[in-house]
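Lab notebook, bench 4. We co-purified these components, and the gel suggests they stay together. Before we commit to crystallization screens, I want a quick structural picture of the whole thing.
Request: model the full complex, all chains together.
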Amino acid sequence: MTAARFAVAAIGNAIVDIIGRCDDAFLAKHGAAKGSMRLVDAQTIETLYSEMGPGIEISGGSAANTMVGIASFGGKAAFIGKVAGDEFGRIFRHDIGAAGVAFDTAPVNDKAPTSRSLILVTPDGERTMNTFLGISTDLDHGEVDAATVTGAEVVYLEGYLFDQPQAKAAFRQAVSLANAAGRTVALTLSDGFCVDRHRTEFLELIRSGVGILFANEAEITSLYQTANFDEAARRAAADTKLAVLTRSAKGSLILADGKAHEIPVDPVAEAVDTTGAGDLYAAGFLYGLTASRDLATAGRLGSLAAAEIISHVGARPQTNLGELARARGLLS
Amino acid sequence: MTAARFAVAAIGNAIVDIIGRCDDAFLAKHGAAKGSMRLVDAQTIETLYSEMGPGIEISGGSAANTMVGIASFGGKAAFIGKVAGDEFGRIFRHDIGAAGVAFDTAPVNDKAPTSRSLILVTPDGERTMNTFLGISTDLDHGEVDAATVTGAEVVYLEGYLFDQPQAKAAFRQAVSLANAAGRTVALTLSDGFCVDRHRTEFLELIRSGVGILFANEAEITSLYQTANFDEAARRAAADTKLAVLTRSAKGSLILADGKAHEIPVDPVAEAVDTTGAGDLYAAGFLYGLTASRDLATAGRLGSLAAAEIISHVGARPQTNLGELARARGLLS
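Here is the predicted assembly.
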């Protein structure tokens, strides 16, 4: 196995977030379940946008956020995802590059606009996402750059992409390439409803070559169709080498080699916006893992990064996470 | 004089801000004087953007920020300014409308893109602005809607627009229309360098029909070519009915009817980003004035709004300013 150019390379949706505030009544009026992510069509996102309050635009995308987090810790990260040649595509490209993440997927014009997600933040800090998937779901295996995938210690796959047949094919190709090169494949389940739509195929993918599985409580219980978290956790530990399960305020659980590590959350003075908490937990964990830290330290780095992201609006860190971790004694 | 539809109508640049962080060395390398606003061409803004860190996009524009502030206090505000039919133009239109400000200027395509300003925030909270004036300076008198101008108690003119001949003509037309309708014209000088470029014409405009003049220390001393603030203030008081002079941490000075009102600043726990402090001071002041408050109260509303804007990134309020003022006992 040759030395890796990247600690982690991700394949995910390239999305610009439009973040605005709203109250619970606005969500109810528009049939959006608080705290969920739903896919919406062009008409729905226009209606929501026209009726919501002022917004701010910040680059996002779940796996893209994770790669930016890894770079902020000082790790080498790459991203594969699809944007159009429009203003939002330019914003996405600038921001991920400026954050230190390698991003070389060529823009595609005249097919669909760059994907965007309307994130409505209620006064309690909860976020409800309404995502219009434009060009980013159009990713196919031709865009999965083999040198990037085989040149990373960990290849990180974003479950959200799994809704389109060509993206599924791209994922399977990435798993084959990575496994053949002796690399580790990580998968985040992304969303309970997405798991529900593709349960069988997700399980096949996991059992066929995923070494690290990230999921939150809703996702892992959806995957194994049980209301019992402990049972879902046991089954995840049997299906994959390393299961990393996040549980919001209850912290996280890391299962590997028959052992369980319970990781507490990092306290936050005020939960301003929970967008990206799971993405940044994965960033801290994967940075720690690829920097040869033990699992408990990797988990604590995940909690640290999640706490930073919750303390402000937007899912990209506003503080250098490496410095933050050193100040806290988690890295030297 | 018929009843006014709007408390204030503004004519200004329609700009989307791209806000990022940088250190002092970055500013020095790119020849940008900390705390200043400079106009840059398309090439320079591209270079700065490609070398700066990740950004967030928030609607801005000096007079537009002021109108949003007035709406946040509960006042009726309108804005006249020019955008293109691109994504940034759509963002600007959405945000100002969603904030409750009437905005009916039609977009113009294929001439120039929507204006944008790269705002570089240094660790001390100072902001350095690099503005690429696209379509917004192209405003001409045909776009100054007479019904809007004559339908507002106060017509507020943004000095930044004064660099283009057609915009100067638009300003003069607005002054004539407003004065003929018995309305008050307010002018903000916007920038010391802008004053330097157009001193004689600014003085003519002020003496010919500006009832309220807003300026900070650098602008008013530039206008009267004196290093002595007190002298500049005396001359401003002679040239206009109401002079409102802001002095950063030293508070503000309101001069009218031979009297001077000194207004303290509102304390801020942490100055995160000073972008928009002057714009929001003007919002509080103009709201107070058009809501028939006395000058000292109007000034304190200005200080309150400026403090809110300094406490976070971006030049549009994140808190309802009317509620904030009521909580502080400044409005009932």
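The longest helix of chain A spans residues 165-180. Worth comparing against the SEC data before the next meeting. Residues 6-327 of chain A form a domain with the UDP-N-acetylmuramoyl-L-alanine:D-glutamate ligase fold (CATH 3.40.1190.20).
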